[in-house]
Write a structure and sequence with these properties.
The protein is mostly helical. The protein is built from 13 helices and no strands. The longest helix has 27 residues.
Length: 248
């Protein structure tokens, strides 16, 4: 995958518009409905890296589930959002720092509340999470680095889901399924004649279709990263960090 700043969205070119995380940061003290919805959207997209982090620390599947669930109960109640530092405003960093604090200080209290029957605010598919965890890299990869890698992969999942939805809305989901394997291929290795034959397009049209998909992939991936940082100048650095995590 070759992600670069040339894939910036038109909104990014016009200025750094409010994103899900900047909405949360701006309204964290007021607790506005928009901030709550933005935070829940982010948590739904990026909860699995925390589950994997807890498992890599040695927590059982059951305890990792309870820890992750209770953490989000508290986070969505905005008890800790005042600690979000705009100067270090990556949602990725804030979330892991808050989770570590929770693990160190809050687990006993969380267990007591759980026994009291507190309902979860963010239902998690922990059965799926455990099946995913079983495919994770060997235990030699430390918990923090596994978290970073899983964060990057979660962003890729979000990007792919958005791309597929765009093609489905346009009535071209079959084209997306045919072409998506070329998103991470080296450009020189793409056999456009084979793409044309499989898709029924001319060789020239196949080349254009792959190029457009790869360009849109870069744009959407950048937009998803933008949603998790607090300032425009952080986007390129965050992209480099995530690509390095994926390369491990």
């Amino acid at each position: 995958m070759h992600t670069s700043s040339t894939g910036a969205s038109s909104a990014s070119k016009a200025g750094f518009v409010p994103t899900r995380w900047t909405v949360v940061l701006s309204a964290r003290d007021a607790g506005s409905p928009d901030a709550g919805a933005a935070l829940e959207s982010l948590c739904r997209a990026y909860w699995y890296p925390l589950y994997a982090y807890a498992r890599r620390l040695g927590q059982s599947p059951h305890d990792a589930q309870d820890l992750t669930q209770e953490f989000f109960v508290r986070l969505l109640e905005k008890r800790w959002l005042a600690n979000a530092d705009r100067e270090k405003g990556r949602f990725r960093t804030f979330l892991l720092t808050a989770f570590k604090r929770f693990l160190a200080n809050e687990w006993d209290r969380a267990q007591a509340q759980k026994r009291g029957g507190q309902a979860p605010h963010l239902p998690l598919d922990t059965a799926l999470a455990e099946s995913r965890y079983e495919t994770e890299p060997p235990a030699e990869l430390p918990a923090d680095r596994l978290y970073e890698r899983r964060w990057a992969l979660a962003l890729l999942d979000q990007t792919m889901a958005r791309l597929r939805a765009e093609f489905e809305k346009a009535g071209h989901v079959a084209e997306f399924e045919q072409l998506k394997r070329f998103l991470t291929a080296e450009r020189a290795t793409i056999a456009y004649a084979d793409v044309a034959r499989e898709s029924g397009l001319s060789a020239g049209a196949a080349r254009v279709a792959v190029h457009r998909l790869r360009r849109r992939f870069r744009e959407v991936f950048r937009e998803e990263v933008t949603h998790t940082v607090a300032a425009a100048e952080d986007v390129d650095e965050e992209l480099r960090h995530l690509l390095a995590a994926l390369a491990e």
